[in-house]
Amino acid sequence: MSGTTVTPEYLAEDIGPSIIATASLTIAFTTVFVALRYYARHLSQTRFGVEDVIIPFAWLAEVGLCIIGIVMVKRAGTGRHVEYVLKTHPEGVISHYKGLFANQLVHPLAVALPKIVIVILFLRVFNQKWERRAAWITLWLMLGTLISYSVASMFQCRPISYNWDQSIPGKCFNFDLLANSSSVPNILTDLIVLVLPIRTVIGLKVSTSRKIGLMLIFLTGSVGIVASVIRTIVFVCTDPLLDITFNYVALVNWTIIEPGMYLLAACALSFKPLWRMLSKFIGLYALCTHTKSSATITTLPMPAQESIHLETLKTASSGGFTKLSSGRDTIDEELEVETAAVKPPGPGITVMRTVETMEEFPYATRASNVAVADPTESPRAVGRAI
User: Fold this and answer.
1) Which residues cross the membrane (predicted)?
2) Mean pLDDT, rounded, for 56-71
3) Closest Cα partner for 111 from 190, 32, 181, 48?
4) What pTM did the predictor assign?
5) pLDDT tens by residue, 245-292
C-alpha cells in the first residue's frame, strides 16, 4: 500500500465482524418473516400459488449471500488490510476473489425473486388492463435482467478460474461496466413497483385513512430501492485495486442488505391477518378492524312482502389482500339487498330464523343476529343488517 506506513495498529485493524453481524441479523430477520408469511397465509386460508414456491428459493439465495460473506471473513481475511492477509496467509486473497465471484452469481437471483413475488401480488390484486399490462412488462423485464446478468457474470472471464487466479492465461471483459449497467434495470423496476399501485388506490371510493393505509402497504414493496441506490453508490466509489480485502467490506454488506430488504417487503405484504390477530390480542381490534355486536330484527305482518337477496362479493386474494377496482371498495365483504314485490301469504303464525351475517363498515363491523321470517310461512324482514 503506497503512501501509508504499515504500523502494528494498522495491521490489527479488522472490520470483518461488521459482515458477520449484517449476515447474522439478515438470516434471523428473513427467516422469521418467511415463517410469519406462511403462518399468515394459513390464517387467511389462502390457497398456495406460484409465489409460495418462489419465496423459499429467494430465502435460500439470501442465506447463501450471508454464508458467503461469513466465509469470506473467516477464510479469506475480508475486513483486514491486504498487507495483513498477504503477510499471514497469502492464499486468502484468492479466497476473497472467489467470494466476490460467488456473490456476483447469487446476487441477481436473490434480488429478482422477491421482486417477482411482489409483481405477482400486483397481478392478483389489480384487474385494470393498463395495470396488468405494466405488471407483466415489469415481470418480464425482471426475468430478462436475471438471466442476462447471471450468464454474463458466469462467463465474464475465460477460463472461469481467471476470476481469482490471474497468473494463468485468460481474459475478462469490462466487469465494472457490467455491474454499473445492472443497477439501471434494478432501479427502473423498483420505480415501476413504487408508482404502479398509486393511481388505483387514489381512485378507490373509500375513506382517506383507508387510502393512506393501502398506499403504505403497497409502498412497502419498494423499500429495496433505497438499498439498491446505496449499493450502486458504494460500488462506484470502491476502488477494485486498492486494499481489496478491506475496501470491499461495505460493498459486501450492502450486497447482503439489498436483497434482504426486498425479501422482507415481499413477506410483509401478506401480514394483514397477523395485524388483525395482534390487534385483537392487545384489545385494539375494534379500532383497527371492526367490532362485533348483536341485534335482532323482528317483523310484523305487512301488506306486501319483499325478499332479500344477500350476495357475497367474489374476490381474488393473496395473503389477505382482495382484488381492487377503481369503482368500488371491495376490500371487505358487503351485503347487497335486492327487493322484489311478492304477495303476502296472509296472516298467521310468524316463524323466525336466526341468520349470522358479517358486514364491515369503514371503521367498524358488527356481527348481527338477524331474525328472518320463513318465506313460505310469513312475511320476511326487509332492510340491511346493522
Assistant:
1) 20-40, 52-73, 105-123, 135-155, 183-202, 214-236, 248-271
2) 97
3) 190
4) 0.70
5) 999 999 999 999 999 999 998 998 888 788 777 777 776 554 444 444
In total, the chain counts a number of residues equal to 386
Tell the CATH superfamily of the 10-273 domain.
Rhodopsin 7-helix transmembrane proteins (1.20.1070.10)
CA distances from 325 to 184, 201, 315 (A): 31, 9, 11
Count Cβ atoms below 10 Å from residue 119 Cβ, excluding itself: 25
Q: Are 149 and 184 in contact (CB under 8 A)?
A: no
Q: What are the residues facing 359 on neighbouring strands?
A: 366
Q: Could you give the angle at which helices 175-195 and 129-154 cross, rounded to 10 degrees?
A: 160
Mean pLDDT of all residues in the chain? 75
Cis omega before residue 159 (within 30°)?
A: yes
What residue segments make up the domains of the chain, in order of their start?
10-273
CA dihedral 206, 292, 338, 331 (to 10 degrees): 30
Q: Which residues pair with 251 in a beta bridge?
A: none
Characterise 26 by phi-psi region: left (phi > 0), alpha (psi -120 to 50), beta (else): alpha
Grid cell listed for 37: 408469511
Cα(194)–Cα(224) distance, rounded to whole angstroms?
10
The answer to whether 309 and 111 have CB atoms below 8 angstroms apart is: no
> What is the spatial distance between Cα 284 and Cα 39, in angstroms, rounded to a whole number?
21
